[in-house]
Each structure stands twice: as structure tokens, then as C-alpha cells.
Design a protein that fits this description.
By secondary structure, the chain is an alpha+beta fold. The chain has one domain. It is built from eight helices and six strands; from the N terminus they run βαβαααββααβαβα. β1, α1 and β2 form a beta-alpha-beta unit. Pfam families: DUF169.
Length: 177
């Protein structure tokens, strides 16, 4: 990414970095991220599965077997990238927005009218911003919606009344005049 004027953080959750990118551009790499779930979905290093699953136990309240199945289904980049730019001067690969349900419905109406069909997406209660919004939107070039997991809402400061929306570059023209 174009790193002119971008800051590099350390010890942050990805969802926290998204919030901080509202102030100015950021460059993230494997060393910046403290969250094992985000490292997993971005294919950075070799995060310990048990550590990821254990980190869910305080909020998700599911058995270890089910947690393993969910972890296996979370979108994950097939290759790692050296850096991720947030709010940089480059052309973005995707847009991430936090919208009210009303604004989300307006977005769906636009999508329906343009695509001529309904929007299908998967929901999860773990790694919702890094995995379900960013990685899935990037890899599959489709619009995604998420309620945001407890950690994303906490670290990313996502307001209670907001949903997360991911829009891939190839669909920008539908929503951005």
C-alpha cells in the first residue's frame, strides 16, 4: 500500500485498527496485530488453533468441538500479504462501513435493483470484521453484512445500533455515484 503519511501501530486488534484508521491512514503487518484470530484469517504466521478457540470461551460459550468447526469455516486468505493498508491513498480493494439497519436496508434495495436478486451471506459470531467482512469480501468479491462479534464491538468501538458492511471494489459503481 501507499504508505505516505501512514502510521504503523503495534499490539492492536484488527478491528481496533479499523477504528483508528478513521483518523488517518494506517499500515498493518503481522507484527502489528495482537489478535490470534486476525492473524489466522490474514494467514500471518501459524496461530495456535487452541489459543484462538480459548480466546472465544469468555464470550462465545460453545463447545471446543463446535468452535473448531466454526474456525474451519471462517474465511481465510489463501496466501499472506506483507501489509494491509487502511484508509491509504491507494485504490481500495473493499469498503468497510458501519451502517444503521435503515441505511443497510437502503443498501440492500440498491443491490436488489442492480443485481435483480437477493443478497446471500454467511453470519458468524467470531472474527466478524477481519474474517467475515474483510477477508470474505476481498476473496469472494461479494457484499457482506455482519452484526459484529463482541470483541469487534469492543475494540472497534462499533456502536450498538450499527451493522458492518463490506463492499468489494468490483461493486463500488453500484453504490458510489
Amino acid at each position: 500500500p501507499n504508505s505516505i503519511g501512514a502510521k504503523k501501530l503495534s499490539g492492536v486488534h484488527f478491528c481496533e485498527a479499523v477504528d483508528r484508521a478513521l483518523i488517518g491512514p494506517l499500515i498493518l503487518d503481522e507484527e502489528c496485530i495482537s489478535c490470534p484470530g486476525a492473524k489466522y484469517v490474514f494467514n500471518w504466521g501459524n496461530p495456535n488453533r487452541k489459543e484462538i478457540i480459548d480466546s472465544w470461551q469468555d464470550t462465545v460459550k460453545i463447545s471446543e468441538d463446535i468452535a473448531g468447526t466454526i474456525l474451519d469455516s471462517v474465511p481465510r486468505l489463501k496466501k499472506s500479504y506483507g501489509y494491509i493498508g487502511l484508509n491509504t491513498n491507494d485504490e481500495p480493494d473493499l469498503l468497510l462501513a458501519y451502517l444503521t439497519p435503515e441505511d443497510s436496508m437502503d443498501l440492500l434495495r440498491i443491490y436488489h435493483n442492480y443485481m435483480g436478486g437477493i443478497l446471500n451471506f454467511n453470519l458468524s459470531n467470531v472474527m466478524t470484521i477481519c474474517g467475515n467482512i474483510v477477508v470474505d469480501t476481498f476473496m469472494n468479491e461479494k457484499v457482506n453484512i455482519s452484526f459484529g462479534c463482541d470483541k469487534a464491538r469492543k475494540y472497534g468501538k462499533i456502536a450498538r445500533e450499527k451493522l458492518a458492511i463490506g463492499i468489494p471494489r468490483k461493486l463500488f459503481n453500484i453504490f458510489i455515484p
